[in-house]
Amino acid sequence: MHLTSYTDYALRTLVYLGTRQGLALAKIKDIANIYNISNNHMSKVVYELGQLGLIKTIRGKNGGIKLALPPEEINIGEVVRKTENLHIVECFDRNNNTCIISSACKLKFILHEALQTYLGVLDNYTLADVVSNRFDLLEIFNFHEKNA
Amino acid sequence: MHLTSYTDYALRTLVYLGTRQGLALAKIKDIANIYNISNNHMSKVVYELGQLGLIKTIRGKNGGIKLALPPEEINIGEVVRKTENLHIVECFDRNNNTCIISSACKLKFILHEALQTYLGVLDNYTLADVVSNRFDLLEIFNFHEKNA
Q1: Is residue B107 domain-shared with residue B145, that is, in the same domain?
Q2: B1 CB neighbour count, 10 Å cutoff
Q3: Region class of A36: left (phi > 0), else alpha (psi between -120 and 50), else beta
Q4: Which of B6, B13, B105 to mutate to probe the A interface, most A CBs <10 Å?
């Protein structure tokens, strides 16, 4: 049971941008370097986060990206609901279900209840909670940027 | 966020055996047919469930497999904890973590809390709850076995 790498990097990107609130705009290549993933993969994550209205791209010479909302308005549960494939088991995806017992199976209700509870915990937190120690995070980012 | 196919089929196997409690011993090939997976994959699942003390293999001409415990003693949360890879994100697996922010990252605590809550819901159920409608399930299994 893993989050997809897309959700993982979407969250990490938000942490990076939340940490750097009020500083210079961020560059995709710097975030890609920090997390050691390709520019191409990071560009896709940034594009999708833009589509979701979570980050803003400023064009031009001193352009870059930043959060589109204050960190306290970015709910972690909402981000995961929007980015993650939540088909815990095959029968959660009606279009691709081949399990013959699904019409009578009680497991799906139990797994659904567990998933909702999982997301409910995430709903209790915003990006502001995650970057409440932003100076510790900033120190890590700055160290890695200097030594890149 | 999917359960691995191993956990999925482990649960389905337990549902099959829980439904057939008190009937003739089950055959691996019948369970494999019912769920449309290879005998080889099903044999591995059955072997692991045996190692976990959840199912018993009876050898000989009329041999087969059955639950090693009554369904009410097989806890769903416990099965998932034993079968699933619970490394929701990279940093949950200390041996394979490359994320540079993990020492200061608060996301991991939030995801850990959510995961524990997820498993806590599953802990509330046993296989007996899952097969409480065993006659409905049996009807499905019998129909598919006759039409295989």
Answers
A1: no
A2: 18
A3: left
A4: B105
Contacts of A12 in chain B (CB under 8 A): 99, 101
Cβ contact, residue pair A99, B137, below 8 Å: no
Q: Is residue A48 domain-shared with residue A24, that is, in the same domain?
A: yes
Same structural domain, B6 and B60: yes
Give B121-146 pLDDT, tens digit per residue: 999 999 999 999 999 999 998 888 88
Q: Which two tokens stand for residue B9?
A: 């089929």
pTM across the whole model: 0.91
Nearest to B1 among A86, A98, A106 (CB): A86
Q: How many domains does chain B contain in total?
A: 2
pLDDT tens-digit profile of B109-126? Answer: 999 999 999 999 999 999
- Residue B2 to residue A85, Cβ atoms within 8 A: yes
3-class secondary structure, B26 = strand
Q: Are B106 and A132 in contact (CB under 8 A)?
A: yes
> Which ipTM score applies to this complex?
0.92
For residue B65, give how far its alpha carbon lies from the nearest alpha carbon of chain A (Å).
20
